[in-house]
Design a protein that fits this description.
The complex is a heterodimer of chains A (about 180) and B (about 950). Chain A is built from six helices and seven strands, in the order H-E-E-H-E-E-E-H-H-H-E-E-H. In chain A, a hairpin with a 2-residue loop joins strand 3 and strand 4. Chain A starts with 5 loop residues before the first helix and ends in an 11-residue tail after the last helix. Among the domains of chain B are: about 70 residues, no CATH class; about 160 residues, no CATH class; about 120 residues, Gamma-adaptin ear (GAE) domain (Immunoglobulin-like); about 110 residues, TATA-Binding Protein (2-Layer Sandwich), CATH 3.30.310.10. Chain B is built from 43 helices and 17 strands. The chains are: A alpha+beta (about 180), B alpha+beta (about 950). Chain B: This is AP-2 complex subunit alpha.
Chain lengths: ~180, ~950
């Protein structure tokens, strides 16, 4: 019988392109986590701890790919934030690197020169943008315009509802 | 607060986040969080109904707290309420909460599914997308059950908005990944394939992931996608860099879609249609050409996107492995990358070249880069890149460059990362053995390995060098001289002492003529290491000493004195004490002749697959050693003969009566003895039968593979292959055994015996005729067994095979895969009947149950095939849970019929099964349960 940890099982058996995406700061604080494979909270925490440690220990000029368990981690640092994706060994590392970059561009365009604070205070938006871009661990829409159009439409929908809603406690809508 | 706050700001949330950020300590943070949790809880429990905005705000706060790493055990209901809000913003937060904190609470799932159902049928594309995102994010089985049939309809409907189609495609893919049995494409197949032609690039990008996955599983149904993919790819590749507008990424047209198209094509062999193939080859050439063009932008994104496509194209070229021209071009391109200033490209080039090295068309081209790769191994600063370089050197190694590569790997080993040393050691050992023409070089290499990385040299490696030295008499003198010299070092690794002890014990006489390595000098050298060694090594050294007494009678007195001293003869370790006592006695009572016979030089080991290679395969998983396997297929001459797993193992002796064992001529290890003890050193030294006895342990492995099938290869080693074909009717069976001689040498005295041990002789009747005693090299002979099942049984008949190969007696015992289930007659029955009988068989002893972990994938089709192979009828629409399998059958024996019902309940989430058997006879339930628990 195969003697594999249950953790490895669900993470390697379900063949989903991007298994998960993590954003964390140089201080090791997790800023965003998106899991495309089903894992328990305990497993997620364990993986996060392990990966944050491994990636932070890497030196600047090292390559952006590293083998980790049966998977491959593709990561890149933008200012104070590390973005990292877990893919399978046979998957395309470079195109994954550009998935990360496109997501950064999307955040940047939406927030206007995005910084770590934007993601902290508007984490829900960061999730919404990610869901428009990647779904089920696969690229859903790679056009920057189309993704942002979808998000902006949603925002617009919110504005309209908000203005019609007298019960709203705050109208601090700023541009 | 950030400058930008788009959409609706939730001020309360922002304040809370600021508070948390301002906390000076972890304790302060926890305090603040607990305060907030108490606040939210009271709000949720309060009498006053909360408005949508507050509910959303609190749910969002809970989400934030959860994402900080704290547990959240309430708020799910409020989040579910938000789903049915008609305000987009509230709905969206509700869905986000559900996606992140999915709870398998079934009450809740039903409510969530209801909300999703409403949104899916709302015809509002924004709501539909939210619902689809939620399904894709959660992807649970309950959701698959509820929506798997609805989503394909949305995907292919003419009036579905593009954005909804995109979400639907990937949502379906996600459900298919976890519950493939619930996603049935059937009638939609052709329309889904044609999404590759969709005008909207986003739709194609999303749909192709789904199509690729479905093609992998059902290549035939989806094969029309090949020509569509080729023409789509061709259009993209030949388009100008601005044609595709927003799908152009840093001057590269549609890189993601291109990669996905190339990936899809890797599910299929090269297109058969000449025109399609021509067009594809053109695309691949264009991609290779573009790599040579000057970059259109200096941005790394440009080169990354361009190279991502290039690497994917190279993967396809390697996958086809049929276009020598493209393979060599790919190799040259990668060669350029080997010296690129981007670390990422160097890493990928090394990795990709590794697969190219295994193609016969490009192997030579890869070899031309050896200097660059060696340089990378020496100078790369990133260990993961160095590791790729080492892998590539291993892959490109052949007889022409083996010495250079092994030397480089050895010197790398001195500074290599601890994490990869063991693997490096195995690789060096394999290459040294595989490509050794000059055996003194092989011996030097392995001894160097022990010197440099002794701690990482596993038993397999040093067993192997001994096996080879014993099998090659041209290297024995050299080996003795070299180990003697190596042992001169004041601190040498224990593995070196083991090898030294063994080799000098066997071949010390070959260097004894030189006064500098006279018998006594040799003995004193070995004995000077004795006290620093572990018990197994000391045991081995004691055996070397007794061999010395035989080789060099002049050392007898000295050695007897050593054996006689209290620290040996009264050693607290039983093994050491026993050896000392026995050897002392043997040396004093046995005549010279007896001594010479008993302590004769080891006979050659039988030829078998290198155990080191097996170890590397096990370590790296299949595929990792593909190059070596490729080489194995076209075996070149001059390979070393190798022994198998058996090494000069020094594990404890198994016989309680030492004197009987010493002088008795042991012919075989008793059936059932553990393989470890079969290889014990004493057995080796004294056994007359030689190495043959080793394989006499019963082979269990092949046996279990035949529970659910009747034909296949039961056993195979370097010498012999045994195939089986069998058929069963009622309580009778006939089995054809095919013995194939894989060598070019005749097998003599070939005899086979089938026996039914113990009470099995009363349960099973097996008859056969003897086979011809000679099996020519390359020939196959057949034997027929007639089997009759008298009553139910649990044991398996044993097949013993004996023959002589090159003088050595081979002895092998296998379990014949005759299992009780072979006598099944399938029984069809309706649900009602099944459960009625199930209830009738309700005595606790009639039921056997096991819960076990899946050891294979849980693919429905495979499971069904196995259950049918079992011999029972697989009953549909019986179990209320369609995930479960139920089977029924009657076992036919001469004396009686035994009715059996089986139920297998898979749990895909946990990767577990529960297997329940109920039979009219207790022992049958038990036996079937044991057999089947190993099958899934």
């Amino acid at each position: 019988m195969k003697q594999k940890l249950p953790l490895l099982d669900s993470i390697t058996l379900i063949d989903i392109y991007i298994r998960f995406m993590l954003l964390f700061s140089r201080q090791g604080k997790l800023r965003l986590q998106k899991w495309y494979v089903p894992l328990s909270d305990k497993e997620k925490k364990k993986i996060t701890r392990e990966l944050v440690q491994t990636v932070l220990a890497r030196k600047p000029k090292m390559c952006s790919f590293l083998e980790w368990r049966d998977l491959k981690i593709v990561y890149k640092r933008y200012a104070s934030l590390y973005f990292c994706c877990a893919i399978e060994d046979q998957d395309n590392e470079l195109i994954t690197l550009e998935i990360i970059h496109r997501y950064v561009e999307l955040l940047d365009k939406y927030f206007g020169s995005v910084c770590e604070l934007d993601i902290i205070f508007n984490f829900e938006k960061a999730y919404f943008i990610l869901d428009e871009f990647l779904l089920g661990g696969e690229a859903q829409e790679t056009s920057k315009k189309n993704v942002l159009k979808a998000i902006e439409q949603a925002d617009l929908l919110q504005e309209v509802r908000l203005l019609n809603d007298i019960d709203v406690g705050t109208k601090a809508v700023s541009y | 607060m950030p400058a930008v706050s788009k959409g609706d700001g939730m001020r309360g949330l922002a304040v809370f986040i600021s508070d948390i950020r301002n906390c000076k300590s972890k304790e302060a943070e926890i305090k603040r969080i607990n305060k907030e949790l108490a606040n939210i809880r009271s709000k949720f429990k309060g009498d006053k109904a909360l408005d949508g905005y507050s509910k959303k705000k609190y749910v969002c706060k809970l989400l934030f707290i959860f994402l900080l790493g704290h547990d959240i055990d309430f708020g799910h209901m409020e989040a579910v309420n938000l789903l049915s809000s008609n305000k987009y913003t509230e709905k969206q937060i509700g869905y986000l909460f559900i996606s992140v904190l999915v709870n398998s609470n079934s009450e809740l799932i039903r409510l969530i599914n209801n909300a999703i159902k409403n949104d899916l049928s709302s015809r509002n594309p924004t709501f539909m997308c939210l619902a689809l995102h939620c399904i894709a994010n959660v992807g649970s089985r309950e959701m698959a059950e509820a929506f798997a049939s609805e989503i394909p309809r949305i995907l292919v409907a003419g009036d579905t908005m593009d954005s909804v189609k995109q979400s639907a495609a990937l949502c379906l893919l996600r459900l298919y990944k976890t519950s493939p049995d619930l996603v049935l494409m059937g009638e939609w197949t052709s329309r889904v394939v044609h999404l590759l032609n969709d005008q909207h690039m986003g739709v194609v990008t999303a749909a192709i992931s789904l199509i690729t996955c479905l093609s992998q599983k059902n290549p035939d149904e989806f094969k029309t996608c090949v020509s569509l993919a080729v023409s789509r790819l061709s259009r993209i590749v030949s388009s100008a860099s601005t044609d595709l507008q927003d799908y152009t990424y840093y001057f590269v047209p549609a890189p993601w879609l291109s990669c996905k198209l190339l990936r899809l094509l890797q599910c299929y062999p090269p297109p058969e249609d000449g025109a399609v193939k021509g067009r594809l080859v053109e695309c691949l050439e264009t991609i290779l050409n573009k790599a040579q063009e000057p970059p259109k932008s200096k941005k790394v994104q440009h080169s990354n996107a361009k190279n991502a496509i290039l690497f994917e194209a190279i993967s396809l070229i390697i996958h086809y492995d049929s276009e020598p021209n493209l393979l060599v071009r790919a190799c040259n391109q990668l060669g350029q990358f080997l010296q690129h200033r981007e670390t990422n490209l160097r890493y990928l080039a090394l990795e990709s070249m590794c697969t190219l090295a295994s193609s016969e068309f490009s192997h030579e081209a890869v070899k031309t880069h050896i200097e660059t790769v060696i340089n990378a191994l020496k100078t790369e600063r990133d260990v993961s890149v160095r590791q790729r370089a080492a892998d590539l050197l291993y892959a490109m190694c052949d007889r022409s460059n083996a010495k250079q590569i092994v030397a480089e790997m050895l010197s790398y080993l001195e500074t290599a990362d601890y994490s990869i040393r063991e693997e490096m050691v195995l690789k060096v050992a394999i290459l040294a053995e595989k490509y050794a023409v000059d055996y003194s070089w092989y011996v030097d290499t392995i001894l160097n390995l022990i010197r440099i990385a002794g701690d990482y040299v596993s038993e397999e490696v040093w067993y192997r060098v001994i096996q080879i030295v014993i099998n090659r008499d041209d290297v024995q003198g050299y080996a003795a001289k070299t180990v003697f010299e190596a042992l001169q070092a004041p601190a040498c690794h224990e593995n070196m002492v083991k090898v030294g002890g063994y080799i000098l014990g066997e071949f010390g006489n070959l260097i004894a003529g030189d006064p500098r390595s006279s018998p006594l000098v040799q003995f004193n050298l070995l004995h000077s290491k004795f006290h620093l060694c572990s018990v197994p090594t000391r045991a081995l050294l004691l055996s070397a000493y007794i061999k010395f007494i035989n080789l060099f009678p002049e050392t007898k007195a000295t050695i007897q004195e050593v054996l006689r001293c209290d620290s040996q003869i009264r050693n607290s370790d039983v093994e050491l004490q026993q050896r000392a006592v026995e050897y002392l006695k043997l040396s004093s009572i046995a005549s010279t002749d007896v001594l010479a016979t008993v302590l004769e030089e080891m006979p050659p080991f039988p030829e078998r697959e290198s155990s080191i290679l097996a170890k590397l395969k096990k370590k790296k998983g299949p595929g990792a050693v593909s190059v070596t396997e490729l080489e194995d297929n076209k075996r070149e001459g001059g390979e070393l003969n190798g022994g198998g797993e058996r090494g000069p193992d020094t594990s404890a002796m198994s016989t309680p009566s030492p004197s009987a064992d010493l002088l008795g001529i042991r012919s075989a290890v008793p059936v059932g003895a553990a393989p470890a003890s079969a290889g014990s050193l004493l057995v080796d030294v004294f056994s007359e039968a030689g190495p043959a006895a080793v394989s006499a342990a019963v082979n269990d492995d092949g046996f279990l593979r035949f529970v659910c099938k009747n034909n296949g290869v039961l056993f195979e080693n370097q010498l012999l292959q045994i195939g089986i074909k069998s058929e069963y009717r009622q309580n009778l069976g006939r089995m054809y055994l095919f013995y194939g001689n894989k060598t070019s040498v005749q097998f003599a005295s070939f005899t086979t015996t089938v026996s039914c041990p113990g009470e099995l002789q009363l349960q099973l009747n097996v008859q056969t005729k003897p086979v011809e005693p000679l099996v020519e090299g390359g020939a196959q002979i057949q034997q027929v067994l007639n089997i009759e099942c008298l009553t139910d049984f649990s044991e398996a008949p044993l097949l013993n095979i004996k023959f002589r190969y090159g003088g050595a007696l081979q002895n092998l015992t296998l379990k014949l895969p005759v299992t009780i289930n072979k006598f099944f007659q399938p029984t069809e029955m309706a649900s009602q009947d099944f459960f009625q009988r199930w209830k009738q068989l309700s005595q606790p002893t009639q039921e056997a149950q096991k819960i076990f972990k899946a050891s294979h994938g849980m693919d429905t089709e495979v499971l069904k095939a196995k259950l049918l192979g079992l011999g029972t009828a697989l009953l549909d629409n019986v179990d209320p849970n369609p995930e479960n399998y139920v089977c029924a059958g009657v076992i036919q024996t001469k004396g009686q019929q035994v009715g059996c019902l089986l139920r297998l309940e898979p749990n895909a989430q946990a990767q577990m099964y529960r297997l329940t058997l109920r039979c009219s006879k207790d022992s049958v339930s038990k036996r079937l349960c044991e057999l089947l628990a190993e099958q899934f």
